[in-house]
Amino acid sequence: xxxxxxxxxxxxxxxxxxxxxxxxxxxxxxxxxxxxxxxxxxxxxxxxxxxxxxxxxxxxxxxxxxxxxxxxxxxxxxxxxxxxxxxxxxxxxxxxxxxxxxxxxxxxxxxxxxx
Length: 115
Prior knowledge:
The chain is α+β, with helices and mostly antiparallel strands and 115 residues long.
C-alpha cells in the first residue's frame, strides 16, 4: 500500500504508530502476527511482487508469525485460529490497512470466534 500511485494519508505517522504497537507488544511478551495479503495474478499485491512485501520499517522479527491470506478474512484458509489457540491467545489487537475491508472482516470473524 505504500508504493501505490496515490500516497497513503499520513503514512509516516501510520508507520510510527504500527512500530510503537509492535514494540509495546514485544515488551509485554505478546506474540506479533503479520498477515500478508496475496492478490490475484497481475495485481499490485500478487505474491512475490513489491506490493506484496511487508514494509521494511515493520519487518517481522525471528519470533513473529507471518501468515499469507487470499481472502479479506485473515482466518479463512489460514492457520491463524490454530496458532492463536496453540499459544494461548485470548485477546487481540488488530491493526492494518483497508479498514472497511480486511480489518473489518477479520475483526468481525475474531469476535465471532470469541476474541
